[in-house]
């Protein structure tokens, strides 16, 4: 089994630097040949990770935010993976929809508001697990914070995991993906797949479908760079039997228990061990 990397959560948000078209969605990335010779991923310096895309300018985790981040030089694009009611994997940060979509204005969905227990606390809202992919795709996304640029609100929909991967694969240079297995305990409680498969199974199956595999810095990995991250250690252990791609255990505040094992990280020594060294098996 691969060794889990222990690292604190380090997120680099790529801010808008200017010099591009007014409409960031007008990128014809679909016309590019994913098999043509590409500029390789640079490995001589720390990686630039576009956390939820270029969300300082464009609503987070949208196609335009990721396209802008790639244009600005991101080495990796980062996303959070959740699941719809009908089992499709989507790119979305919150388990509820109200903070970054127009769900509150959609009267046809008013009755879907629920209260669920999430990580030991009751939460009320419109949950992604109560909506099919088609319904989620009908929503439009907005900026999370009022102080950010609001001009791109309501222009984009929620991405699927497949769509996110294709954005990286159609870039004109090698761009890695950095997906998080988000809230796996909650997702596995509310979404069921045939054959007894779990959220983690579908997550890895999607990556393998597009050829993401290989140990860190291997030939396969350099062609399609990937880091898998999660706050749930048991999810990372589980997928270690399915992929040898590098995995990172994300750590919250030291008093916040892990999502699955309910353990608090009070001693950071174990978490930072090997942080300044090369990846280990």
TrEMBL record:
Coiled coil: none
Protein name: glycerophosphodiester phosphodiesterase
Catalytic activity from the UniProt record: a sn-glycero-3-phosphodiester + H2O = an alcohol + sn-glycerol 3-phosphate + H(+)
Protein species of origin: Hordeum vulgare subsp. vulgare
GO biological process, one term: glycerol metabolic process
SUPFAM superfamilies, alphabetized: PLC-like phosphodiesterases
Family designation: Belongs to the glycerophosphoryl diester phosphodiesterase family.
Record PANTHER family: GLYCEROPHOSPHODIESTER PHOSPHODIESTERASE GDPD5-RELATED, GLYCEROPHOSPHORYL DIESTER PHOSPHODIESTERASE
InterPro entries in the record: GP_PDE_dom, PLC-like_Pdiesterase_TIM-brl
Pfam families: GDPD
Keyword Nuclease applies: no
Signal peptide: 1-22
Keyword Hydrolase belongs to the record: yes
Protein EC: 3.1.4.46
